[in-house]
């Protein structure tokens, strides 16, 4: 690569990273707004989420196109290639977080249009804050190329799974006590499920950050080995694969 | 590329394609076995699904590694690069189909261990056959590089969404009529949801096949434009994005 091409490549790489961070910021806001619509019944927020979802979709396609072009034109080195391939995978997870946020917003609308307030919403609110923080932490780990921070997000996903199971039990109890709430409770279950999925996607993105920095693919390796590899240590036999 | 390198590259590309098709075959069998376990209560099938899920995870990591190496070493042309980047994305969807199949198998186990047979299972069986065919059709479209066939899968996903909504209504009615079935019915809802997700993933994979062959990114473009682009025609304004 000539010096000029090299400089151009790094500028383009930087733009790709910034666009991805921008997309992540939008998704974070979508999750918050969807949950806010659920708590407050402010349905203008639902429209806002749907508008942003289109922007997120547009960014997904644009970033993917940039990545293909950058690889095709520049024959990047191992490290830069890893970064580009990782962003390409992270993009998919980020876009799906956006989809889940949109589902939450739509269900918030349905719940409010059918009237009534729901007790388990408080619990979901907590879960939502938790997974939003996970998205933010994945983005931070990505921006700062910090695999140890990323491994923390992977660990946090276990917490989300616990909260999800707890919420599910809680909502089921609620339905059994008052079967008239069945239809609306199913919507709440889907909201909890959407939050749990967002946690999963944040975990996937963080695993990609570890791969980006360390070159180790930590998917399906178990949390202990993920943490070891994130610190740059060797993995140990765990039979977790 | 020298002739030798070129030949080696094409052999490696072929291996990557075959491994992906193998992975797809495993996932297809997992969905079928999971549903079979649900219908018959044959829980040895659940273990079989879980074994295969590990193999699918292993293949995902192996294929991704091959793709990175192929890109880094061979600086593939636009067409080959598009193929490799597409397989990389399809891999993620395929692995998640495997995850959903595993969830179905685990819920089949729980439902049978808690005893009882459930009326709505017949309906889910139909949905399962439909989405399994969608996975197979995506793989066929991929193997034969047939974008028109792929567009049919994208269209079929709308059918799955209808079946999902129908099943959901049916199961909710069932719960309201007999609230004692609430807990078990929730499991059935999750099975239906898992099937609906598998349909989504098959759709995503088919969209990648269209991109692979035509170079047009048809995500978020709406079904009519997807079909036009798959046939090699120009897209029209639809305001669907």
UniProtKB/TrEMBL annotation, chains A, B:
* Pfam short name (any one): PhoU
Q: Which InterPro entries match?
A: PhoU, PhoU-like_sf, PhoU_dom
A Gene Ontology biological process in which this protein takes part is: negative regulation of phosphate metabolic process
Keywords for the protein's UniProt record, in alphabetical order:
Cytoplasm, Phosphate transport, Transport
Record localization: Cytoplasm
Q: What is its main location?
A: cytoplasm
In this chain the PhoU domain maps to 21-107, 124-209
| Domain of life assignment | Bacteria
Q: Which GO terms describe its cellular component?
A: cytoplasm
Subunit and interaction comment: Homodimer.
Similarity-based family: Belongs to the PhoU family.
> What is this protein's function per UniProt?
Plays a role in the regulation of phosphate uptake.
The name this protein carries in UniProt is Phosphate-specific transport system accessory protein PhoU
According to the entry, what is the taxonomic lineage of the organism?
Bacteria, Pseudomonadati, Pseudomonadota, Betaproteobacteria, Burkholderiales
């Amino acid at each position: 690569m000539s010096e000029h091409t090299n400089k151009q490549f790094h500028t383009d790489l930087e733009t790709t990273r910034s666009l991805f961070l921008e997309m992540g910021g939008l998704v974070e806001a979508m999750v918050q707004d969807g949950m806010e619509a659920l708590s407050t019944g402010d349905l203008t927020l639902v429209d806002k989420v749907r508008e942003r979802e289109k922007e997120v979709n547009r960014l997904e396609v644009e970033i993917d196109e940039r990545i293909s072009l950058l690889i095709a034109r520049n024959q990047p080195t191992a490290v830069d290639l890893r970064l580009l391939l990782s962003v390409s995978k992270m993009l998919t997870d980020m876009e799906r977080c956006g989809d889940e946020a949109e589902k939450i917003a739509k269900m918030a609308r349905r719940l409010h249009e059918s009237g009534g307030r729901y007790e388990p919403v408080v619990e979901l609110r907590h879960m939502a804050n938790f997974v939003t923080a996970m998205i933010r932490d994945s983005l931070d780990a990505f921006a700062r190329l910090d695999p140890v921070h990323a491994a923390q997000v992977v660990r946090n996903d276990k917490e989300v799974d616990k909260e999800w199971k707890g919420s599910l039990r809680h909502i089921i109890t609620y339905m059994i006590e008052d079967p008239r709430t069945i239809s609306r409770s199913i919507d709440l279950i889907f909201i909890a499920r959407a939050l749990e999925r967002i946690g999963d996607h944040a975990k996937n993105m963080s695993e990609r950050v570890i791969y980006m920095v360390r070159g180790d693919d930590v998917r399906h390796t178990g949390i202990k080995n993920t943490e070891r590899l994130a610190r740059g240590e060797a993995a140990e036999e765990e039979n977790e694969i």
